[in-house]
């Protein structure tokens, strides 16, 4: 199947892997990205248009220039702690940006729309694993902005023929060891790349809260490898192209790992020790977020290639070493 696909945020970490996966399957991809966190050299074979997601005029020109069969919306701000400090920025980009894209999608009669949402929409669900029908009670502006964008998609599609798939990401991690695209070892944001940096440099790393009601007191998260997640986007695109109904799907392995477990595993995989500092809890952090992925597996016939957090960390560590070694030689 060959379709023309617009991918917003396609030059970023997840986006570059989605682009590569779709291109290998014969899709023509156009990436729309402001390159604030992404890089053009991560998507060398894609058509790149540089622009902001909230720029209606720029979006309109892109939609007029190409005839898209589908839109995959990945452009977003993704840090829950940052969203506490900068809520307006998150509502502007994640909600208003989504609405700008939906406006053009409806105007140009796009039949298939895939949206990258987040497990943060559940807030603190109080159950593990959590299913797609659980109440949406976000506890930070990031989760709230994603929840509102979901509702906008559902409402706007009700006045058109657009069908959608909402993918609720849990914690995305890992790397493609052949290319190492999407990796920024010099300024990591999330836990696993931070652990790799700590191992590589012998730096300290912090745990925010070790008094939660979990197996070891630290937060528990469900980690999914970025290549497995990229494959889900391909399957979701095929699902919608097959005229199947709109659906919400959790994207996770279905098993949790605590922060302490991740850090211990990173030390074992790397063979390096680092100091772990205990700090107070951060506002907006849920104790446990683990996916019930039964619907994902059933609907898309999906099976993860990377089955545990140790395998995920191994790929991150390989790429961390490769990229930092390359920089030290330059």
Quick summary of this structure?
It is an enzyme of class 5 (isomerase). This protein is an alpha/beta fold. Helix content is 40%, strand content 18%.
Q: How do the SSEs run, as a string of H and E?
A: EHEEHEHHEHEEHEEEHEEHEEHH
CATH homologous superfamily grouping of the largest domain: NAD(P)-binding Rossmann-like Domain
The helix/strand class is alpha/beta
Kindly report the CATH topology of the largest domain.
Answer: Rossmann fold
- The amount of helix comes to 40-55%
Strand content: 15-25%
Strands ordered across the widest β-sheet: 3-2-1-4-5-6-11
Overall geometry = globular
Biggest beta sheet attributes:
7 strands, parallel
What key attributes describe this structure?
2 domains, Rossmann fold, alpha/beta, 7-stranded parallel β-sheet, UDP-galactose 4-epimerase, domain 1, 330 residues, 3-stranded mixed β-sheet, 40% helix
Structural features, described:
The structure is a single chain. The chain is an alpha/beta fold. The protein has two domains: 4-172 and 224-251, 3-Layer(aba) Sandwich (Rossmann fold); 191-221 and 254-329, UDP-galactose 4-epimerase, domain 1, CATH 3.90.25.10. Helices cover 40% and strands 18% of the residues. The protein contains ten helices and 14 strands. Helix 5 (141-157) links the parallel strand 5 and strand 6. Helix 8 crosses helix 10. It is globular. The model has no long low-confidence stretch (mean pLDDT 95). It catalyses: UDP-alpha-D-glucose = UDP-alpha-D-galactose. Belongs to the NAD(P)-dependent epimerase/dehydratase family. InterPro entries: Epimerase_deHydtase, NAD(P)-bd_dom_sf, UDP_G4E.
């Amino acid at each position: 199947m060959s379709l023309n696909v617009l991918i917003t945020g396609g030059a970023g970490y997840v986006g570059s892997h989605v682009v590569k996966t779709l291109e290998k399957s014969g899709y023509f991809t156009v990436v729309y990205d402001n390159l604030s966190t992404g890089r053009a050299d991560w998507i060398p074979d894609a058509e790149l248009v540089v622009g902001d997601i909230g720029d209606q005029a720029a979006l309109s020109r892109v939609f007029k220039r190409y005839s898209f069969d589908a839109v995959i919306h990945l452009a977003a701000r993704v840090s829950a702690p940052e969203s506490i400090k900068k809520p307006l920025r998150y509502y502007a980009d994640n909600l208003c940006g989504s609405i700008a894209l939906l406006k053009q999608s409806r105007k140009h009669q796009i039949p298939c729309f895939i949206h990258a949402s987040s497990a943060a929409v559940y807030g603190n669900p109080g159950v593990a694993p959590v299913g797609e029908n659980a109440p949406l009670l976000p506890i930070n502006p990031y989760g709230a902005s994603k929840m509102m964008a979901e509702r906008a998609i559902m409402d706007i599609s009700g006045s058109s023929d657009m069908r959608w798939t909402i993918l609720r990401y849990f914690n995305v991690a890992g790397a493609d060891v052949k290319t190492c695209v999407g990796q920024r070892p010099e300024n990591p944001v999330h836990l696993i790349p931070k652990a790799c940096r700590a191992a590589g440099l012998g730096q300290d790393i912090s745990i925010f809260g070790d008094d939660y009601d979990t197996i070891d007191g630290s937060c528990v998260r469900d980690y999914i490898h970025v290549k497995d997640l990229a494959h889900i986007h391909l399957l979701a695109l095929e699902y919608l192209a097959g005229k199947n109904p709109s659906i919400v799907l959790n994207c996770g392995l279905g098993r949790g790992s605590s922060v302490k477990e991740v850090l211990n595993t990173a030390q074992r995989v790397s063979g390096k020790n680092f100091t772990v500092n205990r700090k107070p809890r951060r506002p907006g952090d849920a104790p446990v977020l683990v996916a019930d992925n039964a619907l994902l597996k059933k609907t898309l016939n999906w099976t993860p290639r990377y089955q545990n957090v140790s395998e995920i960390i191994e790929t991150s560590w390989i790429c961390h070493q490769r990229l930092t070694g390359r920089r030290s030689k330059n």
